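Hello, quick one for you while I still have it in my head. My current little project is about how a certain protein chain folds up. You're getting the sequence in one-letter code plus the fold written as tokens. Would you mind checking whether the tokens look sensible for this chain? Here's the protein in full, and shout if anything looks odd to you:
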Amino acid sequence: MSEAPRFIVVDADTDSQSELYATVNSRLLEEEAVRDSFLDAVSAREKKYPTGLDFGHCQVAIPHIDPEHVITPGVLVCRNAQQTPFRAMDDPDRELSVRLSIWPLVTDPHNQMDMLGAVISLLQEDSSCQRLLTADPTELPEILAGVLKAVGQQE
């Protein structure tokens, strides 16, 4: 039986994407959730395949990476005090101002699409972004229950 997906919250105060990535990477390494290759891999992937999404009511990034860089499944929610520029997934020339980023940690490649679908479905609800940004960290696993389930499901 595999370990339950981990849930990690990072409240950051960074003013650049590289600082944000370094902060998240540091926390994930501390939690032994990712391999040393994670930061370089997720940074390179973001340059090639931007992860910013504009839902109208909020702008969010969903940086994700191939399973070989992840040790344990889970989800990290990063709430940044400052807006960070991310390029839009659907229009890489467009810059979005993001305070909320959701970092799926998938160890089974079959779970990646379900997990991304669960994140997008959640964020389409008007209140979800605000709740994720302002809720007490102890309330976030309940808000993200569908995402955690998708990350940790077994084949």
